[in-house]
Amino acid sequence: MTHVRKPRLIAALGAVFGAALLATGAAHAQDIKLPPSLTMTAYDTGSSGFNMAVAIGKMMKERSSTDVRVLPGGNDIARLAPLKGGRAQVSAMGVGGYFAQEGVFEFGAKDWGPQALQLMLASTSCNGLSLGVAKDAGVKDIKDLKGKRVGFVVGSPALNQNALAVIAYGGLTRADVKIVEFSNYGAMWKGMVNNEVDAAFASTISGQAREVDSSPRGLMWPTSPAGDKAAWARVNKVGPYFYPHQVTCGAGGLSKAAPLELPAYPYPLFVAYGSQSADVIHGVTKSMIVNYDAYKDGAPGADGLELKRQNLTWVLPYHEGAVRAMKEAGAWTAAAQQHNDALLKRQATLAAAWGQYTKAGAPDDKDAFYKGWIAARKAALVKAGMDPVFEE
């Protein structure tokens, strides 16, 4: 693969980042320029992404007098539509932002196509992202989910694909479980409380997971140890953005004293369209970097937005404005720039392929349209020397 590298923390740069922030934080704080108002989208109220967005909004109000509105959206389409329509500037996305870039699943529909989403900062914290399972379901290992009810959310390829990636660890596919569909993320987790489903995908620190944990059903997380290389190969075939993580916080009794090996990826991803003003994104990113101490304890997982924890060679490129802010903080590297340029080229290749496909008499039938697009997408990426990743 040319664009998907196993996520890894740039730990070696931690000391450099810390020194840069100490030296430049106070000097540059007064240079932060934010608009009078800003609108972000996030998952449903109570989700960890929503809570982090609210904490950041509080910081921006206190430090820059910027009014931040956070719009909850129950699926990826609902969170991106306000950005696409110009009613919001930033979204706290899950890995659905990657699917949007790639133009796959729901984003392979005529009204969408590949979206040029670009990163500002993303959170890598003590939490994991996996399938939470009700204790009364009788599940010990992931393979025990065979025949169990697994929650899906309509219009949310991130949640659904992630659930399939997790069960792949246990050698299971969609055909091995009973899919129960819900209208949004919050409804799916209410379904856990109400015994309508046995397992649902979430961050271990989400409010919904904690609610199930405190309910009569209780909550547990089947582990996915890194040592089983074959199992992880199956996971990464379905979700190439996942990596094994030692999880020390969250519902179900997770702590430093009782950690579990679970899947993870950075979440939430604070993203914007590449067309969004570089000055606005620079201001937002710089505010999040310089004022980190003002919001890091404001919501579980917010500490993961620390500059030294950013993965500069992940699966989405960074926005021009964010790159400028990172350069000012002494965090941007030549390797990061090279990787970013390759990802921006990928976005341009996908956009060109979409334009050619939609102008060449693409079929009206939804399924035929998607099948044709996936074939055209693969051909364009292979021709450009890039890994299609999603081929059907």
Structure write-up:
40% of the residues lie in helices and 15% in strands. It has 392 residues and is an alpha/beta fold. A five-stranded mixed sheet has the order 2-1-3-12-4, with helices on both faces. Helix 1 (14-29) crosses helix 9 and helix 9 packs parallel to helix 11 (320-328). The protein folds into two domains: 11-124 and 267-343, Periplasmic binding protein-like II (D-Maltodextrin-Binding Protein, domain 2, 3-Layer(aba) Sandwich); 129-264, 3-Layer(aba) Sandwich (D-Maltodextrin-Binding Protein, domain 2), CATH 3.40.190.10. Strand 1, helix 2 and strand 2 form a beta-alpha-beta unit.
Can you give the mean pLDDT? Answer: 92
Q: Strand count, sense and closure of the main sheet?
A: 5 strands, mixed
What structural class is derived from the secondary structure elements? alpha/beta
CATH class of the largest domain: Alpha Beta
Low-pLDDT runs of 5+ residues are 1-28
The level of helicity is 40-55%
Broad shape: globular
Measure the end-to-end span: 17 Å
Report the order of strands and helices: HEHEHEHEEEHEHEHEHEEEHHHHH
Beta-strand content bin: 15-25%
Strand order of the largest sheet: 2-1-3-12-4
Do you know the CATH topology of the largest domain? D-Maltodextrin-Binding Protein, domain 2
* CATH architecture designation of the largest domain: 3-Layer(aba) Sandwich
